[in-house]
Design a protein that fits this description.
Length: 431
Amino acid sequence: MKGRAVYIKTFGCQMNEHDTERMLGIFESKGFIEVEEPKKADIVVFNTCAIRQKAEQKFLSSLGRIKHLKKKNPELKIIVAGCVAQLQGEKLLDRVPYIDYIIGPDNIHMIENILENQISNKIFTDENPLVANIKIPAKRMHHVKAWVNIMYGCNNYCAYCVVPYTRGRERSRPVESILEEIRLLGESGFKEITLLGQNVNSYRDGDIDFPSLLEKINEIKGIERIRFVTSHPKDLSKRLINAIKYCDKVCEHIHLPLQAGSNKILKLMNRKYTYEEYFEKICWLREAIPDISITSDIIVGFPQEQDEDFEKTINALKEIQFDGIFAFKFSPRTGTVAAKLDGQISEEVKSQRLTEILKLQDKITERKNKLLEGTIQEVLIEDKDEEEYSTGRTRTNKIVKIASDIGTGKIINVKIIKAHRHSLEGEIIKQ
Ligand code: SAH
Ligand code: SF4
Ligand code: F3S
């Protein structure tokens, strides 16, 4: 394959963003440069997300927008990667014949073979049980913080979710390979790592479970902060809470998706916990780590969600007081159990419920942020903008803007002088 410029557009979660870093790593090792516009590229890659209809729609529109480029330049290669590629495979190629290659998340390494012209297939969607062992170079988007995959796939089959069909069975990456990657990141000046998996709590390699993995990573030189996403409430143990508490580098933040406050809906969702069990774990967390910030995901308008069920989600948010949430309207996905359930909710009701939830949470988030005014927070500086503002995050994952040029990668103590809904303003305190 000729050509030396690649354009990649990424949709979806941090796992997809990290897959993009890996794809760019392969392209770079073959002499490609990344360009900002598809019209300047010899290869265009869409790294797609299938989690909700909207994400898929966005990809299809982007794909439609480059059709004319392919007409003008038949040499242009179009690769569709990610979760839509995995789910639709051949169907997508039938629908959009100008796609050149379809590559599922387990087959990213095949890009190398494609670039070397060693391959005549167009579709690479076989599940690869060994994906956790494959080494692929990464072109990191950031130089202070880095993503590290520790698990692949998901076995939970939440009734609404396509991920078990797009990312395959759950596989844990060997512990030595994880530690080696993080040691290298520490040596290269990275300060923060985020461990990625759909359900990191169920990590296991022999005797090493997730809390033991955190303890090992905590020893690695150079790394100052450790984060992880996502934790499934059913697998959140006291052992993990202790690891967060006692490993000094593990940050005081957990993303723990609740999804709904009604036990009837949680059961239909196949989440495997009740609201009471979830709430008990929130209490354990706050008892052990009083400053911990807790964020969550909520789905509104799941099939059969009556007003009284929705009210239970509202009450849950009032009772728990999350630091922040991501809230979504239920989107029926072909092949999932929830798409076939009776009692689908109208778009209008879903929209009303989403607005109500977001309004309530905005107030809670703002109030919680206000409590931080006047406090001293440890901030890792991640970026600097043109106006000499430095931006970083607290250990609890809140964004802080500081009106000084501090230098990325530095960890400093900052006094919070003003709280907004989505960020905090801070000033350096004289040490
Ligand atoms: N593995 C993670 C995240 C999966 S996707 C976890 O279990 O929490 C991120 C979020 O998208 C989910 O937590 C859920 O809130 C939302 N989501 C997944 N499928 C959805 C669907 N069909 N409709 C609406 N939201 C969905
Ligand atoms: Fe989807 Fe549930 Fe797996 Fe998360 S745990 S990826 S929501 S099936
Ligand atoms: Fe992520 Fe979307 Fe796939 S959320 S796992 S890219 S379906």
